[in-house]
Amino acid sequence: MNPPDDTTRLGYFLGPHGVAGGVKVYVLGDAAQLLALPRVWVEGRGWLRVRRADPLAPGVALHLGGITTREGAEALRGANVYADDADLPPLQEGEYYYHELRGLPVYGQAGERLGEVADVQDGGHQDLLVVSHPAGQGFLPLQAPYVEVRLNARGRPEAVALTPDAPAGLLGEEEGEA
């Protein structure tokens, strides 16, 4: 069962929290984005109503509709958690959600189009852009000083560009092709 379109992966379940069905979530990004969600899409289960969300350093404990026992929460261990993009809270100016990067063009240092952002993945110490380009797919670290996310007049992402500090070959192209 694949997540629906227009959803963003927020993290994954670590295991039970308490004895009444609470589940600890390892959050990718800001844990506050989960606190006001009305529902989440759970890998292998589908949409579940969020009955309660409690801040829990470093993540969140979710209490979900239909999960009322520790054993029920244990069964969710390792499952990915997604939110409908429309349910995510609004951001401050200049901030963006990773789902807003999907589909954006990726430009090289000279302004040439290199490809398109297919997805954003958690790479542990840094997040990675999955970029589709003519030679296939490659990973691009979403990190200064190599990448700049260009924002439009409304403060929303409109393109991703490699900076002059980006080493040649980041997307797997041969040196001199970039």
UniProtKB/TrEMBL annotation:
A Pfam family: RimM
UniProt subcellular location: Cytoplasm
Record-given protein name: Ribosome maturation factor RimM
Domain of life: Bacteria
Keyword field: Chaperone, Cytoplasm, Ribosome biogenesis, rRNA processing
Domain notes: The PRC barrel domain binds ribosomal protein uS19.
Binding partners and assembly: Binds ribosomal protein uS19.
PANTHER family according to UniProt: RIBOSOME MATURATION FACTOR RIMM (PTHR33692)
Domain PRC-barrel positions: 93-139
Family: Belongs to the RimM family.
Residue span, RimM N-terminal domain: 10-86
Function text: An accessory protein needed during the final step in the assembly of 30S ribosomal subunit, possibly for assembly of the head region. Essential for efficient processing of 16S rRNA. May be needed both before and after RbfA during the maturation of 16S rRNA. It has affinity for free ribosomal 30S subunits but not for 70S ribosomes.
NCBIfam families registered for this protein in UniProt: 16S_RimM, PRK13829.1
